[in-house]
Design goal:
The structure is a homodimer. By secondary structure, chain A is mainly α. Chain A is 69% helix and 0% strand. The radius of gyration of chain A is 20 Å and the shape is elongated. The structure holds a DNA duplex. Chains A, B: It holds the Pfam family TetR_C_38. Chains A, B: InterPro entries: Homeodomain-like_sf, HTH-type_TetR-like_transc_reg, HTH_TetR, Tet_transcr_reg_TetR-rel_C_sf, TetR_C. Chains A, B: Keywords: DNA-binding, Transcription, Transcription regulation. Chains A, B: It comes from Streptomyces solicavernae.
DNA sequence: TACTTGTCCTGTCATGCCGTCAGCTTACCG
DNA sequence: CGGTAAGCTGACGGCATGACAGGACAAGTA
């Protein structure tokens, strides 16, 4: 899939090299969780990995490059977010359940990868196409799936034709991503997870079907 | 209100000093729009302002500190976001209009201040309480207003009691903020502003009232 | 064992930014 | 005109960056 792992100067990395490379990625990942993105320095990552800055630059052009690598790995994992939605009916109780599971899956995934996702989000918002692409990769499976659902419901006459399926799906996904990345904020503001989830599910259901769920 | 503007070492800033300070803030602001947050250096800001790095450190402890200052200024401005909502009825056509105007105001405000808001969002997501507070300051007026609306509708029996007003309002506001900060993303993905806005308004209306709008 | 080859890592260096300080200049006031 | 405080900067030690050459190491060959 990735073909071959290569160093910056073009050599192919062997067993040992790949291990070092991965260790650097892991340490960077950890670092991103514990300190602000702006303050993450190559030298700290290298020290944490028990190696030297020069080694880091052998495998990655800069911190951004390494972050992109981590994000790619995560994106592959995140493709599974959409499994929940496959072949789901959005009519009746089944729809309410689909909405709930989508919300659950999303929040979990985000909580697990919040540090990287933060950086990816920033990069995308700043207009960096590489980050933007990865963000798409993660969100697209869900967005596309939801878009299809809306279109299908529209063709059956169950949803107004003047709804833009893509815009609706995109907005809902953006909402999920935003709420997920500010989960802590909600909590310290007095909103509990237990309240948050059903409300998000309700909004998703309302947005997709245009109707209140039958619970 | 702010009392007196002071330098880092305690002196009070006079006319000239305040002008320099403001110029630094303006240049920083511009810089944030044109290059990634991670790459904004004090020396560049100072150069752009026609002064020296030492001067920067006279007025701000670091880049973050200056960003907070800009964000404060913006937050004051952003308090006006809620004007649109004051004394609005969410019943009938008026509700649909309120939703539309809210979305309009939000997207405009975000587009105007996207660079700072990006950084504030990042800081908040990273758990920095100072950034989190400012984010609240900007969003709270809207969130609270929406929360009140939902509660009012609940007391009149027009909205289900099991909806958490705060969670719903918070989710909607988070959605608006997220979509706003990825406006460019939506566009390059094939979703036009003209489609986006009504869909967001629809979602807001659905979330607040639980019903489709009468247009 | 000695030699070769290619991978892997680091010491070192020039460069550039950070953050601080002493000290110079400028403005204001009696 | 002299005093005082504001305003600014040159210069410096410290540290991160990013490049390079060369040493360490493993594996294969004879």
């Amino acid at each position: 899939m990735t073909g071959q792992v290569r160093t910056v100067d073009g050599r192919v990395a062997g067993r040992r090299g790949q291990a070092t490379r991965q260790k650097l990625l892991d340490c960077l990942s950890e670092m991103l969780s514990s300190s602000p993105y702006r303050d993450v320095k190559v030298i700290d990552v290298a020290r944490k990995a028990g190696t030297s800055p020069a080694t880091f630059y052998q495998y990655f052009p800069d911190v951004e490059g390494a972050v992109l690598e981590i994000a790619e790995q995560m994106a592959a994992e995140g493709a599974g977010l959409t499994d929940v939605l496959a072949k789901r009916s959005w009519v009746g109780k089944s729809g309410w359940q689909a909405a709930q599971e989508l919300v659950d899956g999303f929040l979990d995934f985000w909580r697990k990868n919040d540090a990287i996702l933060r950086v990816v989000d920033l990069g995308a918002a700043e207009g960096d196409k590489r980050f933007y692409k990865i963000r798409m990769k993660i969100l697209n499976s869900v967005t596309n799936s939801l878009t299809d659902t809306v279109k299908e419901l529209q063709s059956k006459g169950k949803v107004d034709k003047d709804v833009s399926a893509a815009a609706m799906a995109g907005s809902l996904v953006a909402m999920l991503a935003a709420v997920a990345s500010h989960q802590k904020g909600f909590q310290s503001w007095g909103v509990k997870q237990a309240e948050l989830k059903p409300n998000l599910a309700l909004l998703v259901h309302l947005g997709i079907t245009g109707k209140k769920p039958t619970k």
